[in-house]
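Researcher: Let's run the pair from yesterday's discussion. Sequence first, then tokens, for each.
Model: Starting with the first of the pair.
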Amino acid sequence: MRDDLQAAVAEARVGDRLWLYATYHCNLACVYCLTESSPRIAARRELPAETLLRAAREGRELGFRSVGVTGGEVFMLRDFPETLVELSGILPTIALTNGMLFTERLLARLEPLAELDAALQISLDTADPAHNDRLRGPGNFTAVVDALERLRDRGITVRIATTVEDQTENELADLCQLHRALGISDEDHIVRPVVRRGRADVEGLGVDPEANEILPELTLTADGAFLNPFGPTVRHGRTDLDLLVGRQILPLEVSLSSFLRAVDDLPTGDDVVRNIR
């Protein structure tokens, strides 16, 4: 591990997960999407499989402990199942997905994940199908519940991520009952607010994060390296650059150096609260 990365992780100044934006293309158009992703997005901003794998290999050498892959919808990429298996053989990997594309053929391609340190994090916002689908898209609730069951049947680790906008406490409690019934523990249920960036900002949704509320984690996209995975957002088709730390992403040592310079003056210690993840 690079000494400066090790020190920053030990001080809780940064996280030790490397984030990769595989694509901004998506089969849904969620009302609060950070990247304005949709089926008709003009600029897909894909990172090729070889770039994802190189970043993970270099990340392992530099001292990163895990990889997160997000989008857009990662399974819009034709070869992503095999890429995900390879990534998971390099470092523990979590891939974020909306759960809409899990055909039997795709599930069969993902079966090797059951033997690897890998997880799929699937978005589900409420146990009320109609409310969930208003936020995320028609048919999402049914597809996600079905996917969760079939993935678990194959021994693949799954987590649920809930993005909170206008759900009631009762709705969130019902959602917890649902995921427990599906065999997913509270520890594997991530709950976070809508962050007012990207489409959420355009729609007037969500919260503006307070200073230092989001843990810095090096995030690579086709547009460059960013301070955290909430950074490379898109409004009216243009990428926000306020959290850009550098245009060059590889070699990873270059983007890591830019990233560590950007966090050098951030506070550390127990009084720094990281509420959004």
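Model: Moving on to the second of the pair.
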Amino acid sequence: MNRYRLVHSTEFVYDGPVSESYNEVRLRPIHDDRQSCLSFRLLTSPASRGTSYRDAWGNWIHLFNILPEHCRLKVEAESVVLAHDAPEPPGESLPLADLNARREELLEEFYDFMAPSSYVPFLPQLGDIVCAAGKRGDGSVGGFAQAASDYIHENFSYVKGATHVNSSIADPLALLAGVCQDFAHVLLGVVRSRGLPARYVSGYLAPENESEPGARQEEVIGGRASHAWVEVFLPDFGWIGLDPTLGKPVGLRHIRLACGRDYGDVPPVRGVYKGRVGQRLSVDVLVRPALDGEGRELLSEISEGPHEPPQVTERPQQPGQQQQ
């Protein structure tokens, strides 16, 4: 099945009334040659009207404001996505020994995806993984990238709570543990420090059939919720996806929401509000096939949305509101 129904619901509950809430969200799936966003709508409660635009990376950003006092804010995005088969990576790619000669050319086109960033500084500890991946690979840039992803999958432990949403790669490198966001950032650091362009991808992993051997493991590490992985640019071929968390190929079940230099470019929901109160956050993600076994639409079988009239047109944002 490669057609999916997505419902992503984020709710903030405040300890008292707040006002002048300004928000941006990145929840509209990418539409390109690898996947088609067949439908999308964004609902907010309290109801709002918003605007949208595409950022420098091609992601849809939705903006909305809620000025009156309110004690809750719910943002719900519903999408239907059709995933397409990606081109098979080449059997042979550029020899790793020839990569340095292409560095200037790659920097000119992909500087933002090769330079260090807030979450992905170039730390000395990355050198050990670069060396290990170089020895494990087949001597090509594609083999190096895959070996680096495999190394992280095999040597880092998935531990919820070991890091936090603002952790740079310093934390997972010290702990040899983290979550999918951390593993993606570490892989970005390894391949970028070796001279390959790479970008952070946020999205979802559609669950496997529960009878499959890896289904329960995937549920634990994000298979039924938000997920993150990496796309690496191979000279003379293009972008390939690598998932160091799962240790499996990126395929039809990986649904892309947004991409950027690191997590800081792609948070699903981000905003500020006026008020001296605390907040509680809950996030619920539903990913399911959009067709049943007989090819019928399942769109009516969705969780209930806000009762107030919709409207916003194309948005994105993520846990992490601030107060002013």
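Researcher: Give me one sentence on the second I can quote.
Model: Residues 96-251 form a domain with the C8orf32 fold fold (CATH 3.10.620.30).
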